[in-house]
Amino acid sequence: MLYLIGLGLGDVTDITVKGLETVRKCDKVFLEAYTSLLLNSELDTLEKYYDKEITLADREMVESQSELILDPAVTQDVAFLVVGDPLGATTHTDIILRAIEKGISYRVIHNASIMNAVASTGLQLYNFGDTVSICFWKENWKPTSFVDKIIKNLKNGLHVLCLLDIRVKEIDWSKMVRGKKVYEPPQFMSVNTAVEQILEIIRDREGEDRKFLNEDTLCVGIARLGTDGQVIKSGTLKRIATEDFGKPLHSLCIVGKLHPLEGDMLRHFAVDKSDIPVE
Prior knowledge:
Layout: E1 2-6, H1 17-25, E2 28-32, H2 43-50, E3 55-57, H3 59-64, H4 67-70, E4 78-82, H5 90-101, E5 106-109, H6 114-117, E6 132-134, H7 145-155, E7 160-164, E8 166-167, E9 187-188, H8 191-203, H9 208-212, E10 218-223, E11 231-236, H10 237-240, E12 250-254, H11 260-269
Parallel strand pairs: 1-4, 1-5, 2-3, 2-4, 6-7
Antiparallel strand pairs: 7-12, 8-9, 10-11, 10-12
């Protein structure tokens, strides 16, 4: 049996009772370690709390060597741990399909994720449109299509959750030596970087696009959501661009049409309350 178990957002204690009981009965435990990170909990802390040895599963293992996870699940109970909710990334749907192909039974044990905890900002979940991912730019690669998706949502009056890039154990292809893999240092996109990229793109846009998305558009910067040290700040894009959000992990919301109650909550989190319109 393969168990996909959500760990929540904060620390080792955020796992559900059902999830914890399942981990402790499993023969093998893997921790997916590249789509997100469990804040304030190192691997040895998890192992001590779960009373289990844990194998880190990086992108290469999950996407290219999934047999290392799935083959034991043919005859044993295997736990695949995911920060947040297990089905928050398409990679995890893929591993379920691979399990089905091998005739392996599976079970999903859900938990909180950024996709629902974003309601802590005061923005109502049913007023969100499509979620957008924002990637780090490179010297010769600066994708802009995510801004088109943001604008499409805003035209429909919908808020936009932007998931910011996390790069952990990514191969540095420029430094490959004789077939030996060299990895880039970990990178975690900040709210500031995300806003800067959005503003750089929109400066080159004209007409209707700038009507819906510009430096005065409201947004909410989020850091370490679900932890005791979480930070939520609202304001215009130009104001949030210079705010300090501290350590990762960060997320960003672009605000669409505001309900009065949403406006009240954003004023509570506002860097400058004058940024938030009064209905």
